[in-house]
Write a structure and sequence with these properties.
The chain is mainly alpha-helical. It has 10 helices and 3 strands. α1 packs parallel to α4. The longest helix has 27 residues.
Length: about 180
């Protein structure tokens, strides 16, 4: 592989790393740099579009990038794998933002709001519940998502456990001393 192709690949991976580290705002500065300008092309343009979608946290913009630049974004397995992970993250963030104000919401409404098929949204919501990212249940009979209020942990219980343990040690110590006296 010639030096120019290696430089473009290294620059592409550097941009991808910036995007994945939630530093997508750095991408335009890197691309407009003096050294990067001579490697400008469709690959860098594609990653700049992905960075913009990441900054806007827009699933629609991200999907548009994937349809506009399929050869650039899907041919390289490293880029493709990381973009799949980014898609999952964006989808989770968007779903969490949509369902946040509700205590009960229809899955069909969520799917219409995010413009995805209902089964895809339902599967992702169930995965979020199983992963502990969303506290609720899916009522498939009614096609609704019931979201639970966040139960705050009682700090008294956590503080009482060490007190009970120390009390147990004191009682045992007193019992042993009482045995020696008798």
């Amino acid at each position: 592989m010639e030096d120019s192709a290696l430089a473009v690949r290294a620059l592409t991976y550097m941009l991808l790393a910036s995007i994945m580290l939630h530093r997508a705002a750095d991408v335009p500065a890197i691309i407009s740099g003096k050294l990067a300008l001579k490697y400008a092309g469709r690959g860098l343009e594609a990653l700049q579009a992905v960075a913009t979608a990441s900054l806007h946290r827009s699933l629609a913009e991200f999907e548009k990038c994937l349809t506009d630049y399929p050869s650039v974004l899907r041919e390289d397995s490293i880029i493709s794998t990381h973009l799949d992970a980014m898609y999952d993250t964006l989808l989770q963030q968007n779903l969490a933002r949509i369902v946040e104000p509700y205590s009960r919401v229809e899955v069909a409404h969520v799917a219409a709001t995010i413009a995805l098929p209902q089964d895809v949204v339902e599967n992702k919501l169930s995965m979020m519940i199983l992963d502990g990212q969303l506290d609720g249940i899916l009522d498939q009979g009614e096609g609704c998502l019931d979201i639970f209020d966040h139960a705050e942990t009682v700090k008294t219980y956590a503080a009482a456990l060490p007190v009970m343990e120390h009390t147990g040690h004191v009682v045992e110590s007193l019992y042993r001393k009482a045995q020696h006296i008798l």
